């Protein structure tokens, strides 16, 4: 089975927050507040894989490209690239 990206996710204080697409990172940050925070550092923003693993934007871009989810290689993946 091919590894794919299935959802945007954020990781704060060891907690992974995600919702089904078309939820985007800003939706997650604002909906869950994560202790009243409205900012989540870029290194805590990523995606959930089909194996239910959190990955940052850079490896997510490689996974999405190799799975045929995006048409060309990218340095970082954004939810807008997928949905």
Keywords, separated by commas or semicolons:
83 residues, alpha+beta, four-stranded antiparallel β-sheet, 3 helices, 27% helix
Structure description:
By secondary structure, the chain is an alpha+beta fold. It has one domain (5-82). It is 27% helix and 24% strand. It has three helices and four strands; from the N terminus they run E-E-H-E-E-H-H. The chain has a four-stranded antiparallel β-sheet, covered by helices on one side. The protein starts with a strand and ends with a helix. The relative contact order is 0.24.
What does the secondary structure layout of this molecule look like, with pairings?
Elements: E1 5-12, E2 15-18, H1 25-32, E3 45-49, E4 54-56, H2 57-66, H3 79-82
Antiparallel strand pairs: 1-2, 1-3, 3-4
The pLDDT mean sits at 91
Quaternary status of these chains? single chain
Q: Over the alpha carbons, how many angstroms does the gyration radius reach?
A: 12 Å
**3D shape:** globular
Question: Which range best describes the helical content: under 10%, 10-25%, 25-40%, 40-55%, 55-70% or over 70%?
Answer: 25-40%
Instruction: Estimate the strand proportion.
Output: 15-25%
DSSP E strands, number: 4
Distance between the termini: 22 Å
Strand order of the largest sheet: 2-1-3-4
Number of helices: 3
Supply the number of structural domains.
1
Largest sheet: 4 strands, antiparallel
Low-confidence stretches: none
H/E element order: EEHEEHH
Q: What structural class results from the helix and strand content?
A: alpha+beta
